[in-house]
Write a structure and sequence with these properties.
CATH architecture: Alpha-Beta Barrel
Mean pLDDT: 93
InterPro entries: Aldolase_TIM, MJ0674-like, Pyrv-formate_lyase-activ_prd, Radical_activat_CS, rSAM, rSAM_sf
Distance between the termini: 21 Å
Radius of gyration: 18 Å
Largest sheet: 10 strands, mixed
Cofactor: [4Fe-4S] cluster
Shape: globular
Strand content: 15-25%
CATH class: Alpha Beta
GO molecular function, one term: metal ion binding
Keywords: 4Fe-4S, Iron, Iron-sulfur, Metal-binding, Oxidoreductase, S-adenosyl-L-methionine
Number of helices: 10
Helix content: 25-40%
CATH superfamily: Aldolase class I
Protein name: Radical SAM protein
Structural class: alpha/beta
Number of strands: 10
C-alpha cells in the first residue's frame, strides 16, 4: 500500500492534507484504519447489480460528503463499524464470493482507495473472480480514480447536484458538479460501454444514479439532460425516488417530506422525452427506512 497517499491525504476533493496514517482525521472522519459496518448480500440495487442472488456489498464507514439528508448517516457521520485489516477485507471479498454474490460492491469507498486496491489484489491472487463495483457519491478526484484502473469493473456513482448553491447548502461542496462530471468522464473512459453476462448482470460499465430531492425538479432535469447529452447510451441512468426524510433533517423543513409522485413522474417523463433508453426507474414504496440496512457489523 502506498502510505504516502495517506500521510498527506488528498484522495478526495476536500484536500484535507492530514496525516491519516498517523491518526489524524480529515473531513471523512477516518484514519488509515479500515472501518466496515456491514458486508452482506444486498437485494436493493439496480436489477443488473443485485440480480437474484444479491450484490456482495461492503459498507465502509466515514464519508467525504456529509449530506444533511444522508440515509446512511449512522456510518457516514456516526462512524458505526468495526476496524479491520486489509487482509480481513480481502477475506470478506472471498466470503461474499462463496455466498454466490454477483459482484463485490464497495459502498462509500473513496477515502480507502489505497487499502481497497491492496485487498482486491490479495483476494484475486486467492481466487476472487467477481466484478468489482465502485459505489460512490460521485465527489471524486480524477487522480484518485486513475489508481483504480484495472481494479474496478463497474462504476456506480451518484450525480447529486447541478446547482452550486444546492450542493453548498446540503453537502457543503459548491464544487460538486465540477468534480463529479469530470469523475464520470474518467469512469466511462476506464470501463467503456456497458457489457452484461448471460444472466443480464453487468460485467463492465457505468450506472449514474440521481436521487431526486423534493422541490428541486428543475435541478434534477438539468442533471438528466447533461448526462444524456454528454454520454448518450454509453451509460445507464438510474432515476431514484427513494429519498427518505431522516431525523437529521429537522433544520431543513423543505426536505422534511418525500418526493411527490407527480414530481417523480414529471422527471421520468422528461427523461423519456429526451430519448433516454438506458435507464432504471423505481416503482412502489421505496422511500422507507425499511430499505436502509442494519449496520450491525454483519459479515465483518
Amino acid at each position: 500500500m502506498d502510505t504516502l497517499l495517506l500521510k498527506d491525504c488528498t484522495l478526495c476533493p476536500r484536500n484535507c492534507h492530514v496525516d491519516r496514517f498517523n491518526g489524524q482525521k480529515g473531513y471523512c472522519k477516518t484514519t488509515y484504519e479500515l472501518v466496515v459496518a456491514r458486508a452482506a448480500l444486498h437485494m436493493w440495487e439496480e436489477p443488473c447489480i443485485s440480480g437474484e442472488k444479491g450484490s456482495g456489498t461492503v459498507f465502509f464507514s466515514g464519508c467525504a460528503m456529509g449530506c444533511v439528508y444522508c440515509q446512511n448517516h449512522k456510518i457516514a457521520q456516526g462512524l458505526r463499524g468495526k476496524k479491520i485489516s486489509i487482509e480481513r477485507l480481502a477475506e470478506i471479498f472471498l466470503e461474499l464470493q462463496e455466498k454466490n454474490a454477483h459482484n463485490i460492491n464497495l459502498v462509500t469507498p473513496s477515502h480507502y482507495v489505497p487499502q481497497i486496491i491492496e485487498a482486491i489484489s490479495i483476494s484475486r491472487k486467492k481466487g476472487m473472480t467477481l466484478p468489482v463495483v465502485y459505489n460512490s457519491s460521485g465527489y471524486e478526484k480524477v487522480e484518485t480514480l486513475k489508481l483504480l484502473e484495472g481494479y474496478v469493473d463497474v462504476y456506480l456513482p451518484d450525480l447529486k447536484y447541478y446547482s452550486r448553491e444546492i450542493a453548498k447548502k446540503y453537502s457543503n461542496c459548491e464544487d460538486y458538479f465540477s468534480y463529479a462530471s469530470k469523475a464520470i468522464i474518467e469512469m466511462v473512459k476506464q470501463v467503456g460501454a456497458p457489457a452484461f453476462d448471460e444472466n443480464g448482470m453487468m460485467k463492465k460499465g457505468v450506472i449514474v444514479r440521481h436521487l431526486a430531492l423534493p422541490g428541486y425538479l428543475d435541478d434534477s432535469k438539468k442533471i438528466i439532460q447533461y448526462l444524456y447529452e454528454t454520454f448518450g447510451d454509453q451509460i445507464f441512468i438510474s432515476i431514484m425516488n427513494q429519498y427518505t426524510p431522516m431525523e437529521t433533517i429537522k433544520k431543513y423543513p423543505e426536505l422534511n417530506h418525500k418526493i411527490t409522485e407527480k414530481e417523480y413522474e414529471a422527471l421520468v417523463d422528461y427523461a423519456i422525452q429526451l430519448g433516454v433508453e438506458n435507464g432504471f426507474i423505481q416503482e412502489g414504496e421505496t422511500a422507507s427506512e425499511s430499505f436502509i440496512p442494519e449496520f450491525n457489523e454483519e459479515g465483518v
